[in-house]
Amino acid sequence: MERGPRALNTSELLAILLRTGIAGASAVEVGHQLLRHFGSLEGVARAPLQQLVEVRGIGRDKAALLKAAFELAARLTEEKRRATPMLDTPESVALLLREEMSLLETERFFVLLLDARRRLIRVEEIGRGLLDSVLVHPREVFRPALIGGAHSIVVAHNHPSGDPMPSDADVRTTRDLIRAGQLLKIELLDHIIIGRPSTDRPRDFCSLKELGQFYS
């Protein structure tokens, strides 16, 4: 109350949600246990409800409370997305999508519809794949752009492995979309891949345009 939530560490924030610990342990200790068990806050967020329930001190009610808290965070991200931001850099696209996409366990493919000023009209999810691949066709990508009156588009997908570098299939898909956009007069501005940061790779995304892959 005196210093605000930013002054608390992750275990302490979890403790506020959990409120009480198990016999002989404080809620903060249960928060520590959660982080140790799943490795990180991201691991806790990704954990299925049943795995949370199996952690000592986390019953069904507390597991449901945790899942609800993470869902509220995801919905807050969705509200921010609707604020029509300007998406004129790879960093701005990554900032918009990072929180939602970094937690996904399978690849998903999104198209971002932009107006003539490169402001977001809306985001459409157009493909879901397996652990390490997702297949999309140009008609699926450009259909919402045509219906929504988009001036240009950016496409984005995630790599659950955490490594954002493009595969050969990612490069081929990008070039197919560039050619389709040229025919339809809807420019593909970039293809962003979202991963996760690591000690040797602090940047958690890549831009195929920055990598020099934007030629048809």
List keywords for this structure.
alpha+beta; DNA polymerase, domain 1; 216 residues; Cytidine Deaminase, domain 2; 5 strands; 16% strand; 5-stranded mixed sheet; 8 helices; single chain; 2 domains
Helix segment count?
8
H/E series: HHHHHHEEHEHEE
What oligomeric state do these chains adopt? single chain
Through-space gap between termini? 57 Å
In a nutshell, what does this entry contain?
The protein has eight helices and five strands.
Q: Describe it for me?
A:
The protein is of the alpha+beta class. It folds into two domains: 5-77, 5' to 3' exonuclease, C-terminal subdomain (DNA polymerase, domain 1), CATH 1.10.150.20; 83-207, Cytidine Deaminase, domain 2, CATH 3.40.140.10. The protein is built from eight helices and five strands, in the order ααααααββαβαββ. A five-stranded mixed β-sheet has the order 2-1-3-4-5, sandwiched between helices. β3 (152-158), α8 and β4 (187-194) form a beta-alpha-beta unit. The longest helix is centred in the first third of the chain and has 22 residues, at 60-81. The termini are far apart.
Write the layout of secondary structure elements.
Blueprint: H1 10-18, H2 27-38, H3 41-46, H4 49-53, H5 60-81, H6 90-101, E1 108-114, E2 120-128, H7 138-147, E3 152-158, H8 168-184, E4 187-194, E5 205-207
Parallel strand pairs: 3-4
Antiparallel strand pairs: 1-2, 1-3, 4-5
